[in-house]
Amino acid sequence: MSVRHPQSEEQQALIEAVRTLARKHIAPHAAEVDKRAEFPWDAVQLLRQNDVFALGFAPEYGGTGTGTLTFLRAVEELSWADATVGLVLAVQSLGAIAVELSGSAEQKQRYLPRWASGEWIGAYALTEAGSGSDARAMLTTARRDGDGWVIDGSKRFITNAGVADTYVVFARTGDAISAFVVERDAPGFSVSRIEPKMGIKGSTTGELVFDGCRVDAAALIGEEGSGFRTAMRVLDRSRPGIGAQALGIAQAALDYALRYATERETFGKPLSEHQGIQFMLADMAVKVEASRGLLYDVGVMLDEGIDGPELTRASAMAKLMCSDTAMAVTTDAVQILGGYGYIEEYPVERMMRDAKITQIYEGANQIQRMVIARELLRGLT
User: Fold this and answer.
1) What is the pairing mode between strands 122-125 and 166-173?
2) Taking the mean position of all CA atoms in its chain, how far away is CA 358?
3) Model-level pTM?
4) Among 62, 98, 125, 302, which residue is least crowded by beta carbons within 10 Å?
5) Measured between alpha carbons, how far is 207 from 227 in angstroms, rounded to an integer?
6) What are the distances in angstroms from CA 296 to CA 14, 73, 356, 371?
C-alpha cells in the first residue's frame, strides 16, 4: 500500500488473511468451478467461517467496520483466485446497500446481520429484458393491496438468482419507481431460468418472475417513489466492487504471463528477454497500477463519506478503467502464451472470459463514459 492509501495494521492483517484464504483454498478449485458451472457453495462456506462477508458491514450489524477500501481489496484478492468467488462477496454488498442507505430500522435489524454473517445470500434486481442501462424503462409494477403490495413482472440477468435468500427488487409504482425487499419464499415469486454464460460460470445468472407476488408493507425500502434515486446511489457504491473484481482478474493474468514468460524459451532464450514481450508486460503492468490507483481512491472517498457528483464520476471512472484493463490485460496474457493461452489447461483463457462481463454489468462501459462526460460538463456550468 502507498502513502496515498494508508491502512491500519488491523486492515492489513485482514487483507493478508483473505489473500491466504484465496490462494490456498479458492484458487486451486477455480478451474473446476468454471468447468462444472455450479455455484461455489464450498467457497461460500469458507467466507462464512472466516467472517469475510462481515468486511462489507458496520459493527452494529455484525460487520468488521473496517471500511470500503479494505472491502474492495478483499474482493480483489478473491477475484485474483477466482472471479466467481470475488463476485459472491461484491454482490453480497450490492444486495445490502439499498437497505443501508434507505431502509427502516426494522429492515436493517432483520437483514444486515444475516447478510454480514453470510447466513443469507443477497441479490439486486434492477435489470429487465428491455431495460438494462435504461432503468426508467422498466415494466415491472407494484401496486398497493390491503396492507401490502403485489408485484408483477420479471427481471433478467440477475446475479445469485436461485441461490439468494433475499432480492432487492425495483418496480414501477405509478409514474415513479420504488424498491422492495422480496424474500425467496414470497408467494408468487419464482426463478424461471438460469442462463448458460461465457464466463463467471459458477455464478448463477437468471430470470426472476413476479406473478402476483405478495409482500407486506414493511418490504418497501424508503419512501414510495424513491427507488430510482436509491438505485443510482447504490450503483455509485457498487461499481467499485466490480472494478475490484476486474482488477483482481487483471493482476492474476499479469502474474501468470510474467511467470510464463520467464519459463518459456523461443529462439534460444526466454520470452521475457524479447523486447516485444517486455513492452507488452510493461504496458500491462502500467494499466493495472493505474487502475488500482483509481479504484483505491474511490475506496478512500467512500470511507471519508464523500457523496454526490464527485463520487458518481470517480466511481464510473474506476469501474471503466478497471474493467477495460481486465479485458486488455487478459487478452495480452493469452497472446503471450500463444497457442497454450487458448486452451483450457492454462488459466488465462478463463480469465479472459471472466473479464468480459466486467465491461457490461453494473452499467456497460459506454454508460460509464456518458456518466463521466455528464459530470465533467456539469462542472462547467
Assistant:
1) parallel
2) 8
3) 0.96
4) 62
5) 21
6) 16, 8, 22, 20
Closest by alpha carbon to 49, among 117, 116, 111, 115? 117
What's the chain's average pLDDT? 96
Q: CA 179, CA 166: separation in Å to the nearest integer? A: 13
Block residue for cell numbers 459530470: 375
Active site residue 310: no
C-alpha cell at 150: 403485489
- Cell triple for 138: 422498466
Condensed to tens digits (0 to 9), the pLDDT of residues 347-377 reads 999 999 999 999 999 999 999 999 999 999 9
Return the closest-CA partner of residue 125 out of 153, 144, 103. Answer: 153
DSSP secondary structure of 105-144: HHHHHHHHHHHHHTSS-EEEE--BTTBSS-GGG---EEEE
Any idea which residue has 435504461 for its cell?
Answer: 134
d(CA 318, CA 316): 6
Catalytic residue among 76, 128, 349, 362: 362
DSSP codes joined into one string, 193-214? EE---SS-TTS-EEEEEEEEEE
In what helix (H) or strand (E) does residue 174 lie, and over which residues does it extend?
Answer: none
Question: How far apart are the C-alpha atoms of 376 and 25, rounded to whole Å?
Answer: 44
Measured at the CA of 65, the angle between CA 170 and CA 292, to 5 degrees, comes to: 80
* Bridging pattern class, strands 141-145 and 148-159: antiparallel
Looking at the chain, the whole-number percentage of residues with pLDDT higher than 90 is: 94
2 pLDDT band (50/70/90 cuts)? low
Listing DSSP states for 229-275 in one string gives: HHHHHHHHHHHHHHHHHHHHHHHHHHHHHHHHHHH-EETTEEGGGSH
Taking only Cα atoms into account, the Rg of the chain, rounded to an integer number of angstroms, comes to: 21
Take residue 345 and report the three cell numbers written for it. 489447461
> Which residue is listed with cell 409514474?
175
Other residues' Cβ atoms within 10 Å of the Cβ of residue 264: 15
Q: Are 160 and 91 in contact (CB under 8 A)?
A: yes
Cell reading at 54: 462481515
